[in-house]
């Protein structure tokens, strides 16, 4: 595989509904579509950075700079035997996992299209459909939250995750249990608490949650291990797991019992497979997170979710919850049984609608060797 051109497009799309976490409320999504060309084929990746460094220290601007100045020059014109080798070409550059992942994942799609296999197969997955859950943001009232959840359950989603923050946690969960009974439920704090909140967080133990995601600092392992000692509810780490090294450490010290895999956070498909395998070796189940992706990143996530240790429903949901229309055809849809079918065509197995990408593009660059 040889990449002769890397194209970057900075895209901005309005979200169908606003999305609020403990760190911000957003109404639109900005991301970079990465296109790679080689041997007459084309592959796509999506950089999951946003305009602001709130979920991650990376932003659209830092990713753009890394891609143009450091990452694209390390793959352009280089012969790779397999896309699993691309990540190693970035070894000299520390961090910037989202920028690395976008280009690396595009290379996987390119390769899968060249060998005319679905990406899932090239990644080593076997599932033909994946279990789908939703991530419901913080709302203006508990009634609104309940109504949102009612809609998602009616659509058929297999589990509900709600965002929490101080002042929107125990009461919110209690109201959901009261209205929806034993629905599979979990919470995500996006690092909004400290160990001083342990006693308060332990009140969540009464609600039989599947897990609590990233309650403490975005770079912490130690305090999470302390907190897990005091909670019955399993802790799942998201933000803290940005390398295999931190994953190993987190598992070793008991900082989590579950890990959320996001290829952008960990540096692409090859790193995600390695993280998936590490967790499997240690009996730690994983599930696939989401970053409000367009159909491009979303379809990558679907293919990756076919690996065997993705045993819990993820945050990978239907296109229409996010963008209408989405950038791909057909859009990602939920099946009546709460699963999403894995596309069977070559590569991502969906068509990127170029006109829609171009119409939403605010900045573009074409890079060659
Ligand atoms: O913490 O999982 C998170 C969205 C943006 C940034 C971080 C997170 C999320 C989500 C949404 O929870 C998942 C999705 O629906 O794509
Ligand atoms: Mg999260």
List the helices and strands and how they pair.
Blueprint: E1 5-20, E2 25-38, E3 41-47, H1 60-75, H2 97-114, H3 119-123, E4 129-131, E5 134-136, H4 142-155, E6 160-163, H5 170-180, E7 185-188, H6 198-202, E8 212-213, H7 222-230, E9 235-237, H8 244-253, E10 258-261, H9 263-266, H10 269-281, E11 286-288, H11 295-304, E12 328-329, E13 339-341, E14 351-352, H12 354-359, E15 361-367
Parallel strand pairs: 5-6, 6-7, 7-8, 8-9, 9-10, 10-11
Antiparallel strand pairs: 1-2, 1-15, 2-3, 4-13, 12-14
Helix pairs in contact: 1-2, 4-5, 8-10
The structure holds 2-succinylbenzoate and magnesium ion.
Residues 188, 190, 213-214, 238, 260, 289 line the site of magnesium ion.
